[in-house]
């Protein structure tokens, strides 16, 4: 795909997604949680643009409110995971030796827990909810960002200007913050965009299992979970949230790819 | 070589020990009282104490940890409160579903992704390349449990060709078992195949630009021979790495997909145990899953040695 | 008698974001059976493109126009299946970079015997052939090394393996694209000696591409000098390097240590030819006249009037320069 194509398409989808998430708290076609049993299981266009669910709630409004929840959880977990992961990666790269070895082994350990699994574990200890979901997703992102940061930072640390700064007596913390971090920020942003898509997928999976937001807060994953019972009678309940998830993640991935091409034009084979 | 092996095995053991410790700490040290959770908020203090004793919760933490890990190593995971049977048997039964499911998913994803990725790279910007690109972008973006729902919608609700879920065990014959696992395996495989197609394409493109491919062509090999004899073998290492890294996602996906298709697998066991507050089962299944991920990545590392002779002699 | 190789009006373009860009142009030369030709020129003058065009392995963006005839058979536009029958068996090539030109995951013996195996030889037969080829390229301890992987060999050893691969099909024409550039001076001398001997023993024709006049002087009977994709001078090596007709050749010689034509000394430090003042013009903005005009010490206004035509002289030399008078060439 031409590079501008990816950037435009990904940017447009992501902008739409962001805009929806920002608007939904203030305006949706109908109140997303308003129950109207008389209006239940109405197909798209018969009631509302995308029909109603088993309790007569407007599907489009729920999807919009779900965007807010999904995106806020995804952003919070990526921010958390990126912050912790980057700090660990920088520490490992600048300290080297035993610290490096121990930190990276610790990352291997963390990486052994798929987010759904660590969410179950955390939920068993802490109960379900927004914080548990964020913690579980963020945990899984920490190794991703720390490995990325470490290898990028080690590359930077061999450059002459870093050696010069070190010779000039700058401490490793200042070197990490003044020389390394600005140079790898692009890589981290690219990775964060891609991980945002992954976080949305994971959040959907968690709420599909009931490990995410508690009802009645609308969430894409739970809409899918609820749709299972009515899959024969009301297939739109299963289709609309899935398309929404896939579309949002697709947008973020395309945007991430395009940004990655901009940051490093040599690495262009990934499409 | 032997020394390197020993070092790798030691590191594997250390990782596994750390994994078990993390699970134990999260499940036992974080605020929360499993006995209280199990009995609900209205429980009497003496019944709680009795249950705590029965669960071994009144013992010091290190003792409990050693007891648990020692048991796990010898295959004794304790007895499930809700099922009333040894956890070991539960895990074994459920593995008979999850392992074949995961195996089928990996196989399907490779059968799809390798040819597509190789074809896409060898005809860059051709039709296959576009199909591969669209397929992998969609695959990566689509949740596997939703694919599961769609498959049910199409193949069992609408067409009635396949069962919409459930698993009657392997006693009814291999074919029957495979048939029941087929749709879930497809649901798991498609997103995997998306990632794998992308990685295969990139790896093959990388290798195609290497000098030795030109040497092979200068010898008189045609494009296809150079591709399969020289390019693909050298492109496999990154593909295998991703396959290993993706195993973690596969396991997570299995938890979801098993729930969509109501398959009695390990993921569904963990989930059911969680909803029934049977935390001993949760703890042990989580250990088992995490250990599986660690071991698979270890094996992938070994496979890497096999694929790349340069690593064999330098380390 | 038809020559082994006959190149006529060959040009090669590459596709760039700005469009098709001609790199090599107006290339014409003949090569007889068993003859050795050196192609020399600064980095970026299009030598590798020319070499790759001869063996039909131009990168996807590059295209050749004109005519390349090998024993009368037209190679420009030849389909790949037919070309595969020529590569290795009739035309072989050795590449510049021995460190990356071998497949890292395949044993060297298998890489040498690969074509034999594909043509139906047995495993043992191919292995014996590979072994005798390794002996022919004088790889020490060939019997132990035949099962080695490339990373277990040194640069010089790998270059020998690459030569063995090129010899495996018994080619009539060997194209060597800077085969010694990556090697140190002692190894360079050894490999050049080896190549010269092999060419003589096998009665192969050789095209040796280099930016190093010393290498060319040692290994080839005829020399062609290229600049920015065009030939500026061609003739017997001793004459071209001994009494250059083109100012560019003179400049090249001046930039190299003195009295090269005898080709006896290769001990001098390696150097690129970029010591001529100025830079090679970009292919997208070639000057209207002589391509070398901007750097030429004998530059005069006429030089910019148009590209000087190629002129052949009766003694087998040829030149592209308006300064060269016919009487400058010995009759
Ligand atoms: N596939 C290609 N696409 C675009 N430009 C190319 C391609 N191949 C070569 N070129 C350009 O053509 C010119 C000649 O390249 P070539 O490799 O033939 O030079 P060379 O004489 O072999 O130089 P060197 O001594 O450095 O090997 C260079 O400017 C190069 O950038
Ligand atoms: Mg070259």
Automatic annotation (TrEMBL), chain A:
- Localisation: Cell membrane
Task: Report the residue ranges that make up the ABC transmembrane type-1 domain in this protein.
Answer: 67-256
Q: Which Pfam families match?
A: BPD_transp_1
Q: Which UniProt keywords apply?
A: Cell membrane, Membrane, Transmembrane, Transmembrane helix, Transport
Which cellular component appears as one GO term in the record?
plasma membrane
State the source organism's domain of life.
Bacteria
Q: How does it sit in the membrane?
A: Multi-pass membrane protein
* One record GO biological process: transmembrane transport
TM region(s), chain numbering: 71-94, 106-125, 131-149, 196-214, 234-259
Q: Which PANTHER family match?
A: OLIGOPEPTIDE TRANSPORT SYSTEM PERMEASE PROTEIN APPC, PEPTIDE ABC TRANSPORTER PERMEASE PROTEIN
By sequence similarity, the record places it as follows: Belongs to the binding-protein-dependent transport system permease family.
Q: What is this protein called?
A: Peptide/nickel transport system permease protein
Automatic annotation (TrEMBL), chain B:
User: In its keyword annotation, does this UniProt entry include Translocase?
Assistant: no
Annotated ABC transmembrane type-1 domain residues: 95-304
GO terms for molecular function, please? dipeptide transmembrane transporter activity
Keyword line? Cell membrane, Membrane, Transmembrane, Transmembrane helix, Transport
- Alphabetical list of Gene3D superfamilies matching this protein: MetI-like
Q: Where in the cell is it found?
A: Cell membrane
> A Pfam family this protein belongs to?
BPD_transp_1_N
Where would you find the membrane-spanning parts of this chain? 65-85, 97-121, 141-161, 231-257, 285-307
Q: Which GO terms describe its cellular component?
A: plasma membrane
Query: InterPro entries given for it?
Result: BPD_transp_1_N (IPR045621), MetI-like (IPR000515), MetI-like_sf (IPR035906)
Q: Per UniProt, what is the membrane topology?
A: Multi-pass membrane protein
Q: SUPFAM superfamilies given for it? A: MetI-like
Family to which the UniProt record says this protein belongs: Belongs to the binding-protein-dependent transport system permease family.
Please state what the protein is called. Peptide/nickel transport system permease protein
From TrEMBL, chain C:
Q: How does it sit in the membrane?
A: Peripheral membrane protein
GO molecular function annotation:
ATP binding; ATP hydrolysis activity
Q: State the PROSITE patterns in the record.
A: ABC_TRANSPORTER_1, ABC_TRANSPORTER_2
Which residue range or ranges hold the ABC transporter domain?
A: 7-253
Q: Which residues form the signal peptide?
A: none
User: Quick one: where is this thing mainly located?
Assistant: membrane
SUPFAM superfamilies, per this entry?
Answer: P-loop containing nucleoside triphosphate hydrolases
- Official protein name in the record: Peptide/nickel transport system ATP-binding protein
Protein's organism? Consotaella salsifontis
